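Record 1 of the preview.
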Amino acid sequence: MIENGWNQFEIGSVLRPFSGEVSDVSVIQPEDRLYSASNSFSVSVADWRIEKPLFKKELCIDCQFCWIYCPDMSIISRDKKMIGVDYDHCKGCGICVQVCPTTPKALLMFPEQADEEIELAQWPKKETQETKEN
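->
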């Protein structure tokens, strides 16, 4: 197979997502699939990102909205539980943050070069009933 850049394919080209025979890809985890060389899963697209979503598990209600709406399948979910973000494929669009229903949100956008530990320590606090009454 000739390896072309995305702008070298002719209009109407068919790009096969997988190499070899695939009977039921839905039962194979993404990291175990045999992606073809022309598939974006095998190439990192993160170097154009200027912001990235950080995830705080304690605030997540596992609604799966972020997983459903992510245009790049960058939300890693197992057994209907959000476990992280695939930063090799996340473009930093922020849709996951916009659809997160929790208060404060379980996902927030931060500058690409931000120190994750510092940002997680400064995360907005969840209001308790006592805080609301005072």
